[in-house]
Design a protein that fits this description.
Elements lengths: L1 E6 L5 E8 L8 E5 L10 H11 L4 E5 L16 H15 L3 E5 L1 H13 L8 E5 L13 H10 L3 H12 L10 H11 L3 H8 L1 H12 L16 E5 L4 H13 L4 E5 L12 H12 L1
Parallel strand pairs: 3-4, 3-5, 5-6, 6-7, 7-8
Antiparallel strand pairs: 1-2, 2-4
Length: 284
């Protein structure tokens, strides 16, 4: 693995990690954009597995988005525009021509590819897994206000509870009374991953609002590459399946794949089936 820092357009810095063949050419490089509340190093097992699956002469470049890991904090005027500019910075630094986004990173990937349409940064191939995008009202975002308020008040357990309920509408989890769920979050937040969630809550507010605040119509993404590959886990919350289907319908020539054993965390967990499917997409 190669680690380095790269400068952003606004004077910030992004921590960039490269796995596989460090000097791979652009057409054999995949930029991995991670989800909310997760650092680049959480994706290390997946990045190693994907680099191996892609084969000799390929590289996987994963970076810490703003406000996490060794990257600088979100700027005062942070928005999806910031995320798009950072994707461009990473592509310039690596010459990568392929993009893979997971969860909220899928939202960043789709918005970036839309912005890059017709330019030299337009990805050769684009894949997203469980993309967290608000497509034509596919997600109820009313919970974001309460989530932000609880983070501002320092009540992280309540923030976690509201986020869990908001991101899993229609499930048994969403029907759990808020006070009970808050108590549950107090217990599970002691795990290593949830401790990281707590640390990244402030930046999480900004990125969730950037991704979900505005309703995005499916036709906005019609300019994406015709070979765009939408992936969703069969065991993932229904919201991601609805979103993937709407995106697939909006992008002529795109493909939609349901991972039979897939769940929302399949990417950082480096589930073998998913690694194989993603490798096949980029190499075929």
């Amino acid at each position: 693995m190669r680690e380095r820092g790269i400068k952003t357009h606004d004077g910030g810095q992004l921590a960039l990690y490269t796995y596989g063949t460090e000097d791979a050419p652009g057409e054999r490089r995949v930029v991995l954009i991670g989800g909310a509340f997760l650092t680049a190093l959480i994706y290390r097992p997946f990045s190693l597995a994907l680099a191996k699956g892609l084969g000799e002469g390929w590289a996987v470049d994963v970076y810490d988005r703003r406000g996490r890991g060794k990257s600088t904090d979100q700027p005062h005027n942070y928005s999806m525009t910031t995320e798009i500019a950072d994707v461009r910075t990473v592509m310039d630094a690596t010459d990568a021509q392929n993009i893979l986004g997971h969860s909220l990173g899928g939202s960043v990937a789709l918005n970036a590819a839309q912005a890059f349409a017709g330019t030299r940064h337009q990805p050769r191939k684009l894949a997203v897994y469980d993309a967290a995008v608000n497509i034509d009202g596919s997600m109820d975002t009313d919970w974001l206000t309460g989530f932000e308020e609880s983070v501002d008040q320092g009540n992280i357990n309540l923030a976690l509870a509201r986020m869990k309920r908001g991101m899993h509408p229609g499930t048994a989890l969403a029907r759990v009374p808020e006070p009970v769920l808050v108590g549950l979050m107090a217990v599970v937040s002691r795990t290593k991953v949830n401790r990281m969630f707590r640390e990244l809550m402030p930046s999480g507010v900004g990125e969730l609002k950037a991704a979900f605040d505005a309703n995005v119509s499916p036709r906005d993404f019609s300019v994406l590459p015709p070979n765009t590959h939408f992936m969703v886990g069969k065991k993932s919350p229904k919201y991601y399946k609805v979103t993937a289907a709407r995106l697939h319908a909006a992008v002529p020539g795109s493909t939609l794949e349901v991972s039979p054993k897939g769940f929302h965390g399949s990417v950082p967990a480096a589930v073998k089936e998913l690694v194989s499917d993603i490798s096949d997409y980029f190499t075929r």
